[in-house]
Amino acid sequence: MSIPLPAVPTIDDIRAAAARIAPHAQITPLLTSPALNARAGGRVLLKAEVLQHTGSFKLRGALNRLLQLTDDERSRGVVAYSSGNHAQAVAYSASLLGVRSVIIMPKDAPALKIERTRAFGGEVVLYDRYTEDRVAIGSAIAQEHGLTIVPPFEDRHIVAGQGTLALEALTQAAAMGFTPDTLLVCCGGGGLTAGCALATESVSPTTVVHPCEPAEFDDTARSLRLGHRVANEPGKRSICDAIVTEIPGEFTFSINQPRVGAGLTVTDDEVLAAIAFAVRELKLVVEPGGAAALAALLAGKIETQGRTTMVVVTGGNIDPAMLARAVGAI
């Protein structure tokens, strides 16, 4: 018997999440750039979520979830699984609230992300992403120690928290006098895409949300085309570790399928070029998974001529060697 999906968050849930996390989260800037506008042939609004606490948008969902733990759940602690950004967000949020956190991370996650997760107070458990099941590991640890699982995207409170990004960005755009034609977001399991789609549907219904993925991990793009979830081929690799997932989340895909536009895909080389562009022209440090949406714009994966395009750079937790590799190609 299948487990019923959670209730889809409403715009009121997203607004409540925004109020809930406000004392702890940054309002990140919405930037404009003559260089970006010139490349796009239109107006580009860049949401710089790399400047969020912990260096990525993931703090929004993690905070919203942990702030709603019961007293009993707080006393026991939480467990999360993540390639790095959700890991840091949960560890940081847990530390902020005095809650124990156990974080399951792949052995090949960027060293910087593992180090920072530990620095934020997370108890890191490493696993092999190609031979082991992180969900099974997390479930076993949760059961043994009575911990609450905080998944990276298959949770209505996580999705509502991520939706605060679009709510905030669209409010900023409106204050500047702009209504985006499109909103490009980096996509892994689909939690950010889902939250942004829900917020956009209510706040700016003419804006079309497009998920952006690595070319070798285009499960959301293919699933949207086919009308049902499909998995990626095992054994593929990408430098975009933050958005490498096996298959779209069942809950997140149920939200995204009727609400978003076509998925866009980018190669690792296009991502490296976007990272270099961000350093050179925008003075921003962006990690590979956080640069997918910018890469899609710069590589011309969608029409931007004479249009207003909002792009989210979702994370800046990049290993120095990867940054050097990108800027070395300038």
Can you tag this structure with a few keywords?
single chain; 330 residues; alpha/beta; six-stranded mixed beta sheet; four-stranded parallel beta sheet; 14 helices; 44% helix; globular
What does this protein look like?
With 330 residues, the protein is an alpha/beta fold. The protein has helices spanning 11-21, 34-40, 58-66, 71-76, 85-97, 111-119, 134-145, 156-175, 191-203, 219-226, 250-256, 268-282, 292-298, 320-327, and strands spanning 30-31, 43-48, 78-81, 101-106, 123-127, 148-149, 182-186, 208-214, 264-266, 308-313. The strands form 2 sheets. The chain has a 6-stranded mixed sheet with strand order 1-2-10-7-8-9, sandwiched between helices. Helix 1 (11-21) packs across helix 8 (156-175), helix 3 packs across helix 8 and helix 8 packs across helix 9. The longest helix has 20 residues, at 156-175. It is globular, with a radius of gyration of 18 Å. The model has no long low-confidence stretch (mean pLDDT 96).
Q: Which range does the strand content fall in?
A: 5-15%
Taking the alpha carbons of the first and last residues, their distance comes to 54 Å
Query: What summary fits the major beta sheet?
Result: 6 strands, mixed
Count of DSSP strands: 10
Shape: globular
The overall pLDDT, averaged over residues, is 96
Measured as a percent range, the helix fraction is 40-55%
| Rg measurement, Å | 18 Å
Going across the biggest sheet, name each strand in turn.
Answer: 1-2-10-7-8-9
Number of helices: 14
Q: H/E series, N to C?
A: HEHEHHEHEHEHEHEHEHHEHHEH
What ranges have pLDDT less than 50 throughout 5 or more consecutive residues?
none
What is the subunit arrangement here? single chain
State the secondary-structure class: alpha/beta
